[in-house]
Design brief:
The protein is α/β, with parallel strands linked by helices and 273 residues long. Helix content is 32%, strand content 23%. The chain is globular and about 50 Å long.
Length: 273
């Protein structure tokens, strides 16, 4: 008897709608997303955690047909005409709420909340047909890393039900530095990325050691330079909790001149009896 565990992917979603507008500073990211598609399989559903939604209580989209939230400003008119009509999945949303409750995590459903650009920008590239039911999960606005690891652990069971789990953020999110678009080597950026790569992919680390490093991420080299506020990193913590093992580094390129990473826990086939 065989059982599959769906993949878990932490990816960069780039700057606003720019990855969908042919922006030159997002071409490496676009190429990565296009190339990883075959490794994602054909999920029955998608759970995505975006950096752009925070709530006091974990909140889950539960509408049947979520709208889009154009939560960016000053872009060309076409940026506000983008469509991604993927259906929601109220049944999956309730299942997520149940799993969280079973693990002592309070949550609530929102039938009104739509998909922000941290959801629809990468999904338009990965699954352009928009035919896979999708549910978005909020971050907690306390930005506590351990809490987000626990959320991921609670939801890891979804992997056995062909639900693809995606964390959508950016491993480098110093906006002042990104907007400067400096071409010179940024050793602070490089050192933090080296630490993050080691933390997420080193197979010599036990799960508990990896989790402690992620909980204490702000002690990493130049952590607060790279993440002045950690909302773009915390989707990675949810993914780490759900993945439960060392990940693979699948993107090590530049977005707007800064080194940025993506991490992937592969689809796993288990055999019983």
């Amino acid at each position: 008897m065989k059982k599959q565990l769906s993949p878990v992917l932490f990816l960069p979603h780039g700057g606003g709608p720019l990855p969908l507008l042919g922006d030159a500073n997002h071409q490496e990211m676009l190429k990565f997303l296009q190339e990883i598609i075959p490794r994602l399989g054909v999920p029955a559903s998608i759970l995505i955690i975006s950096a752009h939604w925070e709530e006091e209580t974990v909140t889950i989209t539960s509408g049947k047909n979520p709208s889009l939230i154009y939560d960016y400003y000053g872009f060309p008119e076409e940026s506000y005409q983008l469509k991604y009509p993927a259906p929601g999945d109220p049944v999956l949303a309730q299942k997520i709420a149940n799993l969280l409750r079973e693990n002592g995590i309070e949550s609530k459903l929102s039938a009104q909340r739509g998909f922000d650009h941290g959801v629809f920008v990468p999904l338009k590239i990965l699954f352009p047909q928009a035919n896979i039911p999708c549910v978005q999960l909020s971050l907690l606005n306390n930005l506590d890393p351990e809490s987000h690891l626990k959320i991921g652990k609670a939801l890891s069971k979804l992997r056995s039900e062909n639900t693809l789990i995606i964390g959508s953020g950016l491993s480098f999110h110093n906006m002042q530095s990104l907007m400067a678009q400096q071409k010179s080597l940024d050793h602070k950026n490089e050192e933090f990325e080296m630490w993050l790569n080691d933390t997420c992919t080193n197979e010599n680390y036990s799960t508990s050691v990896r989790e402690q490093k992620l909980i204490k991420w702000s002690e990493a080299p130049f952590a607060r330079y790279c993440q002045p506020r950690e909302e773009h990193l915390l989707p990675l913590h949810v993914c780490a909790g759900a993945g439960g093992s060392a990940a693979k580094l699948v993107f090590d390129g530049k977005i707007m001149g800064k080194k940025t990473s993506a991490f992937f826990v592969e689809l796993i086939c288990l055999e019983f009896g």
